[in-house]
Amino acid sequence: MFDNVLLPIDLNHPESWEKALPMALKLCGATGTLHLLGIVHDLGAAMVASFLPKDFEEKALRQMMENLETFKDEHVPAGARAEVHVEHGHVPEHLLTAAKHLNADLIVMASHEPNDLRSFLVGSYADKVVHHSPIPVLVVR
User: Fold this and answer.
1) Over 90: is that where the pLDDT of 70 sits?
2) SS3 100
């Protein structure tokens, strides 16, 4: 079993956790800690950000934290050790930073079905994490 398992999830997409959450819990065993990570996506352009309220980022992070706490209460069994974390920015970069900060010894994440055009245009977050992670990554489909 693992001591610290990191599970990035996107609450707007159940496929990001439906299969990965049970696997992550199993790999934590009775003594490990599951770290649920939500990442508020970076808008990528200062021009876009200029149209948003000044406190947009703060509110988005606070809302993500509240939503993840609710998710944890509803989907993580009582007695399981779980913590909630929120980051803001580029998903693979912040996922790897969080893994290092939390001293994670495993990342469990879901991946979408392969699609050549989508992979070419956007790339897969799972692919980027697998290629750059210094710790094991379990990709669940």
Assistant:
1) yes
2) helix
Buried b (16+ CB within 10 A) or exposed e, 114-124: eeeeeeeeeeb
The single residue listed with the structure tokens 């992670």 is: 133
25 contacts: CB under 8 Å, gap ≥ 6: 34, 76, 77, 80
d(CA 53, CA 33): 36
Q: Which two tokens stand for residue 114?
A: 């392969």
How many C-beta atoms lie closer than 10 Å to residue 46's C-beta? 7
Structure tokens at 121: 């245009």
Q: Is the pTM of this model over 0.85?
A: yes
- What are the angstrom distances between the C-alpha of 68 and each of 8, 46, 48, 82, 127? 11, 27, 26, 11, 24
Render pLDDT for 12-65 as a digit per residue (tens, 0 to 9): 889 889 999 999 999 999 999 999 999 987 666 555 555 666 777 788 899 999
- Which domains can be identified in the chain, with CATH numbers? 4-140 (3.40.50.620)
